[in-house]
């Protein structure tokens, strides 16, 4: 853009040097060119700002994606294989459920232990055996 404006300025200077353009027209063209330069500079500054903003958002997205993967891995490590089932219930439900469970001292078993419920209950009822 700047190169084009410089070419226009050289052309205008040539016309002015050879008395092929009026002073009024030359002044008007100079104003137009100055406005275009100002617009160009502001646009460039805005683009640089947005590029930096995008890079910062990308870093935050990468950080959050890493946390999601880590939390999914923790769930799998602890036998919670139905993470998507819980996620489908929504944030409000999960917060309410977590508050209810925590405030009532409840512990839920992961799905992988559900089928072992009677065996676990037997261990709880008869701890010395």
Notes on the structure:
The chain is mostly helical and 129 residues long. Helices cover 80% and strands 0% of the residues. The protein is built from six helices and no strands. It has helices at 2-17, 23-77, 83-88, 91-103, 111-114, 117-125. α1 runs antiparallel to α2 (23-77). The radius of gyration is 35 Å and the shape is rod-shaped. The N and C termini lie far apart (85 Å).
Estimate the mean pLDDT confidence.
88
Show unreliable segments: none
- What Rg do the Cα atoms give? 35 Å
Q: How large a portion of the residues is in β-strands, by DSSP E?
A: under 5%
Sketch the major β-sheet.
none
SS summary, helix count: 6
Which H/E pattern describes the elements?
A: HHHHHH
Note the gap between the termini: 85 Å
Overall shape: it is rod-shaped
Which structural class best describes the helix and strand composition? mainly alpha
How many strand elements?
Answer: 0
What percentage of residues falls in helices of 4 or more residues? over 70%
How do you describe this structure in short?
By secondary structure, the chain is an all-alpha fold. The chain is built from six helices and no strands.
């Amino acid at each position: 853009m700047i190169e084009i404006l410089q070419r226009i300025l050289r052309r205008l200077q040539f016309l002015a040097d050879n008395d092929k353009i009026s002073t009024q027209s030359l002044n008007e063209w100079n104003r137009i060119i100055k406005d275009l330069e100002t617009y160009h500079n502001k646009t460039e500054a805005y683009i640089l700002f947005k590029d930096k903003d995008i890079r910062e958002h990308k870093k935050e997205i990468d950080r959050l994606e890493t946390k999601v993967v880590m939390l999914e891995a923790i769930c799998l490590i602890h036998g919670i294989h139905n993470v998507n089932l819980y996620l489908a219930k929504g944030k409000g439900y999960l917060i309410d459920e977590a508050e209810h469970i925590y405030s009532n001292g409840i512990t839920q078993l992961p799905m992988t232990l559900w089928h072992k419920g009677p065996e676990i209950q037997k261990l709880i009822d008869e701890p010395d055996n």
